[in-house]
Specification:
The structure holds 2 protein chains of 2 kinds.
Chain A (H helix, E strand, L loop, with lengths): L2 H11 L4 H23 L6 H12 L2 H9 L8 H32 L4 H33 L28 H23 L3 E3 L2 E3 L10 H22 L4 H23 L6 H10 L3 H34 L1
Antiparallel strand pairs in A: 1-2
Helix pairs in contact in A: 1-4, 2-3, 5-6, 5-7, 7-8, 8-9, 9-11
Chain B lengths: L2 H14 L1 H9 L4 E2 H10 L6 H13 L3 E6 L6 E6 L1 H25 L5
Antiparallel strand pairs in B: 1-3, 2-3
Classes of the chains: A mainly alpha, B alpha+beta.
Chain lengths: 321, 113
C-alpha cells in the first residue's frame, strides 16, 4: 500500500455515510490489493504502474462511493421529472411576463425613462426565471432523496385514473378572466405608486400626493401587498381551471381585506393627503369632498361585493356541471 | 444514430439484469470480489469493477449473499457466497431466463401463431 492507494481509499470513504466507513475500508483496501496483485504478475509493469492501472480500473472514487452509498446519481429521476417539467412549463410563462409587466409599469409610472424601464423589466424577468428554476429544482432534488421511498423508486404506483385532468369545457376559465384580474391589480399597484411618488395633482405650482404620505408606514404597502395576493390568487385559480367553493371564499376574503380598511380609512378622514384636503377646502367650500368620499366608499364596497358574489355564483355553476 | 451505437445501447440493456443472476450462480462456490470480476469477464459479461463491488454489497444487504472475511491467506479477503434465499432467487430468475430464451427463439424462427 502506498500513498496513492491511501488517497484513493480516503477519497472513497469521505464520500460515503460515516456509518458505512469502518465496514467499507478493509473491503476497498482488499479490492485494490487484489487488483494490484493481479497486475504484479505482469513483468512489463513496474510496481507503481501496476498500482496506477489497478486504481484506474476501479475508476472515479466519487462514482464508486455513490454506488456503495446507493444514493441516486441524478438530480431528478423519472418519478419526479414529469411533475417538475409540468410545473415549470406551466408557471414560467405566466409568472415571468406578469412580474416583468408589473416592474415595467411601476418604473414607467414612477417616471423612469422607457429604456431604463425596459432594461429593469427584462432584468427582473431573467432573475425571476433563474430563481424559479433554482428553487423548483432544489425542492424536487430533495424530494428525490428524502421523499417517500415508495414513490421515488420510479414506478408510477401512486397514480390512479382519478388523477386524470378534466377535459376542457365551458366551465373552464379563459386566460382573459385571469388577465383582466391581473391587469386590474397591476393598475391598482401602479396607480398607488403614481399618485404618491409622481403626483399628477399640481395646485399653484405645488405637487400633492393624493393619499396621506403617513400611510406609507403601513397601509399603502398593505394595499400593494393585497393586490399582489390578488394576482397570485388569479394565477392559482387559472391553474386549478375552475371556480370552487374554496376559491370563492378566498376571493371574498381578499376583497374584504382590501375594501374594509379602505372604507375605514376613508370614513375616518385618514386616507387623503391632509395638505391636499386643506388646500382644496381653502379654495372651495369643501362640502363636495365629503360627497366624493361617500361615492368612492360606496363604489369600492359595491365592486368588491359584486366580485365576491360572482365568485360564489361561478363556483356553484361549476359544481353543477 | 448509427448501428454500433444502437448495438452498444441494446447490449447494455440486455446485460443489465444478467450480472445479478451470474453472480448468484457463480457464488454458489464462495469467491472474493476480484476473482469474481475476473471470472465474469472471462465468461464475456462486460461488467465494471465499480459496478460489481457495490452490487455484491447490495445483494448481501438484501440477504441473497452472505459474506465472511477469510484470514487464512496472506491477506484478508471478503468472501461472498450465495445464501439459501439467494439460491431460491437464482432458481426463479433462471426459470425466467429459460422461458425468455424459448420465447425469443420461437420469435426468431417465425411466430407460431
Amino acid at each position: 500500500m502506498t500513498a496513492l492507494t491511501d488517497r484513493y481509499v480516503w477519497a472513497v470513504l469521505r464520500a460515503v455515510p460515516a456509518s458505512q466507513r469502518a465496514d467499507l475500508e478493509p473491503e476497498v483496501r482488499a479490492l485494490v490489493a487484489d487488483a494490484i496483485d493481479a497486475r504484479n504478475g505482469d513483468p512489463a509493469l513496474s510496481g507503481e504502474a501496476a498500482e496506477r492501472a489497478a486504481l484506474t480500473e476501479l475508476g472515479d472514487p466519487a462514482v464508486l462511493a455513490a454506488r456503495y452509498a446507493d444514493s441516486p446519481q441524478y438530480l431528478i429521476g423519472p418519478r419526479w421529472f414529469a411533475e417538475w417539467r409540468r410545473l415549470l412549463t406551466m408557471l414560467l410563462p405566466i409568472v415571468v411576463p406578469i412580474v416583468s409587466i408589473v416592474v415595467l409599469a411601476a418604473n414607467l409610472l414612477s417616471g423612469a425613462a422607457v429604456g431604463a424601464a425596459l432594461i429593469s423589466a427584462l432584468g427582473t424577468g431573467i432573475t425571476v426565471t433563474i430563481q424559479m428554476l433554482f428553487w423548483f429544482t432544489l425542492v424536487f432534488a430533495l424530494l428525490e432523496r428524502f421523499g417517500d421511498q415508495e414513490l421515488s423508486t420510479g414506478t408510477p404506483a401512486a397514480w390512479t385514473v382519478d388523477a386524470l385532468p378534466e377535459l376542457p369545457d365551458d366551465g373552464r376559465l379563459g386566460i382573459f378572466e385571469v388577465a383582466s384580474t391581473v391587469i386590474a391589480n397591476v393598475l391598482v399597484i401602479g396607480g398607488i405608486l403614481w399618485v404618491q411618488l409622481q403626483p399628477p395633482i399640481v395646485l399653484d405650482g405645488q405637487a400633492f400626493a393624493l393619499f396621506d404620505p403617513a400611510l406609507w408606514s403601513f397601509w399603502l404597502p398593505y394595499f400593494v401587498a393585497v393586490s399582489v395576493l390578488e394576482i397570485a390568487f388569479a394565477i392559482a385559480l387559472y391553474m386549478r381551471g375552475r371556480w370552487t367553493m374554496t376559491f370563492a371564499i378566498g376571493n371574498a376574503l381578499l376583497g374584504a381585506a382590501f375594501a374594509v380598511p379602505a372604507v375605514w380609512l376613508l370614513q375616518n378622514d385618514l386616507l387623503f393627503n391632509p395638505a391636499l384636503v386643506a388646500k382644496v377646502t381653502a379654495a372651495t367650500d369643501g362640502t363636495w369632498l365629503g360627497v366624493t368620499g361617500v361615492i368612492i366608499g360606496v363604489s369600492v364596497v359595491a365592486i368588491v361585493a359584486w366580485d365576491a358574489i360572482d365568485g360564489f355564483r361561478k363556483a356553484i355553476a361549476a359544481s353543477r356541471r | 444514430m448509427d448501428l454500433t451505437e444502437l448495438l452498444a445501447g441494446g447490449r447494455q440493456e440486455l446485460r443489465r439484469g444478467t450480472v445479478v443472476l451470474a453472480c448468484l450462480l457463480l457464488l454458489r462456490r464462495p469467491g472474493y470480489g476480484y476473482a469474481l470480476l475476473d471470472r465474469l469477464r472471462d465468461l464475456g459479461f462486460a461488467v465494471d469493477a465499480n459496478t460489481l463491488y457495490p452490487l455484491l454489497r447490495r445483494l448481501e444487504s438484501q440477504g441473497v449473499l452472505s459474506s465472511e472475511w477469510n484470514t487464512e491467506e496472506s491477506r484478508p479477503r471478503k468472501f461472498y457466497r450465495t445464501s439459501p434465499d439467494g439460491d431460491r432467487l437464482a432458481a426463479e430468475l433462471l426459470d425466467d431466463w429459460k422461458r425468455l430464451d424459448t420465447s425469443i427463439r420461437a420469435l426468431d424462427q417465425g411466430d407460431p401463431e
